[in-house]
Amino acid sequence: MKITLFIPCFVNTCFPQAGISMVQIFERLGHTVDYREQVVCCGQPAFNSGYWDEARLVDERTLGLLADTDAVVSASGSCGAMLKVFYPQLFDGRPQADAARALAAKCFEFSDFLVTKLGVTDLGARFPGKVTFHDGCHGLRELGVKSQPRKLLEKVRDLELVEMKEAESCCGFGGTFAAKFPMISTAMGEVKCASALETGADFIVSNDSSCLMQIAGLLDRQGRKVRTLHIAEVLASR
Amino acid sequence: MNTPVEQFREDATRVAADEQHRRLIQGALGKYYVARDRQVGRFQDWQSARQAAAETKWEAVNHLDQHLVSFAEKLEARGGKVFWANNSAEARDYILKICREKKARCIVKSKAMTAEEIHLNAALEKDGYEVVESDLGEYIVQLRKEAPYHFVFPAMHLSRGDIRELFDREIGNVKSDNPEDLTMVARRVLRKKYCEADIGISGANFAIAETGMISITENEGNARLTTSLPRVHIAVMGIEKVLPRLEDLALFLPMLGTAGAGQAITCYNSMIGGPRQPGECDGPEEFHVVLLDNHRTRLLADPEQRDALHCIRCGACLNVCPIFKNIGGHSYGTTYQGPIGSVITPHFRGLQDWKHLSNASSLCGACTSACPVKIDIHHHLLHNRRNAATQKPRWWEKLAYKIAAGVLNWPEFYAFATAVGRVMQKFHPLVKGSVLDPARAWTKTRELPQVAPQSFRDYWRARERKP
What we know:
The complex is a heterodimer. In chain A, 51% of the residues lie in helices and 16% in strands. Chain A has helices spanning 9-13, 16-28, 44-48, 52-65, 77-90, 97-105, 110-117, 137-142, 147-154, 177-180, 182-198, 209-221, 231-235; strands spanning 2-6, 32-35, 71-74, 107-109, 126-134, 157-161, 203-206, 227-230. Chain A has 2 domains: 2-116, no CATH class; 122-235, Rossmann fold. The longest helix of chain A has 17 residues, at 182-198. In chain A, the strands form 2 sheets. Chain A has a 4-stranded parallel beta sheet. In chain A, strands 6-5-7-8 form a 4-stranded parallel beta sheet, sandwiched between helices. Chain B is of the alpha/beta class. Chain B folds into 3 domains: 1-41 and 297-392, Fumarate Reductase Iron-sulfur Protein, Chain B, domain 2 (Orthogonal Bundle); 64-250 and 261-294, NagB/RpiA/CoA transferase-like (Rossmann fold, 3-Layer(aba) Sandwich), CATH 3.40.50; 404-465, no CATH class. Chain B has helices spanning 4-16, 19-40, 46-62, 64-77, 88-101, 113-117, 120-126, 136-143, 160-170, 179-196, 222-228, 249-261, 296-300, 316-320, 322-327, 338-349, 351-359, 366-370, 377-391, 395-408, 411-424, 428-431, 440-443, 456-465, and strands at 81-85, 106-109, 130-133, 199-202, 206-208, 213-218, 232-238, 242-243, 268-272, 286-292. A 6-stranded parallel beta sheet of chain B has the order 1-10-7-4-2-3, sandwiched between helices. Chain B has a 4-stranded mixed beta sheet with strand order 8-5-6-9. In chain B, 45% of the residues are buried. Chains A and B meet through helix 1, helix 2, helix 3, helix 4 and helix 8 of A and helix 1, helix 15, helix 18, helix 19 and helix 20 of B.
């Protein structure tokens, strides 16, 4: 199968290892990986801020560039939700409505794609460490991704998975929200981090690097040793 | 005087940093989650129950014209009086008129958020009436001269120590902070008031179109006393509270108890269908229902957000909201706090003045998952943002997104900008956290992620060059 990666802007610039790990995993499974460097962003910041016309400036292009794909797999649950759930709303009643619905049907979050579409849970990975998983809200509630990452992590050798109490609580990132209301965002992040730290885990893993950016930003400031990793990085480890 | 957004920023910032507040609310809600989950488990299928409730409310709200008329006619046939209030002022004037006619002195109230919405207490007190809240939580916040903190749990921000201190100061000689003792203190005061009061004012949780009755749910028995002892009972309810059939309560009463407080059903459930009937020995001589629009019809006219009128005011969305838990109920500055308040307040009180509540959300969607009547709460926050930006765009924000779109649609320039960022971040420590730091909203409390030495795009290009 030819799999087209959707690598969001912040993964491309700050967390490329998540994307690189995805390439490794899909190739090991025998699939062809496709990446289109012209595709840069899902347009979510403008969309979430209410500037839908400006979001469409980016998204019309993204929509066109991803039209001739078989499957689009996003490295972030949030950007995946943008493509899958919000593009059809953004282009509702417009000439691109059909294209948006077509893209939505073939777009997947990474862990969901592995488990639901490819039907694999054991990737032969080995990762020694105690791990707690953070559910990114968009992946969890817009896309219904809850069991998939856990099924994958349970099959990783030497990995101990411990659930935190607030696994489903928002980390407080929320895109532009983190900058518009920094103190609320920080308070939410502190609750999240405290819950993750309570598990005694060495690693906080998620299917969304944007949440991890918030969590790591707070933990680093607090001088904590806990590391954050995208789930693909764990699953690609041998 | 601060504008609503300035006030919100100030209050939210202060409370978000208050760790004692955080612990208190987390503790209170921790117990709620356990109780709620236990009650949800008693439903054969909670998700189907939510669906059924959403469909019933959809039917009710989309045929509001018929259901309200049916409700009013049935109620009037038994001697009840129905007043259709377009707005707060009309509702207040009507209630004040009754108070004058009855030469009332003392008015006892049971919990009614609609009364908060129309600022009824202030109007009554201004005209010289003594107004006493009889719901324990409301009584406490009334003594503190505060607005309710949460529209279901008005005093959840207070510890029992706080309440003991308050009672000791306001009532006198209260030494114990045992919850039962504190309740007895309030009870002794309130019991007298029920007997003295000329008028009882309540809200309504539901109104039944089929039978012309209102349904009131409560846990203290105070609403039952408020609505039955005084000579006159006035109920103030939003027009969206109507349900088509009496049997609908079989679902909605346990659902409200479960979602609202983690109870199988609330302790007291009253159905009121009119004043004292001939041959009855008790009950009020007069029963008035004030049907309050107050811009609810604006929501009704909006097909996209009409389902916000499904709300049964259970408070479940507040209880799961990470924003609410961190900024507290008072920061909102609204009658209806939390996610549902952020959705409906702009419709009730003006989009431009209250759009900040829709912006102050990470859009996590916990509210929507918790809503028993399946209101698409967090997506409506997005709709409010879109409507606000379309109606009155901020020029600099619009321009910023236009420029961003230009950069993102020009990948070569975007790659160049990334390379510049990689260099510039080396100098970032020089300004980090200062007024010169372009990222200070982030760096005040958090470390910035670093631009990777090799972007994914660079990795991919290098890989493609290999034979």
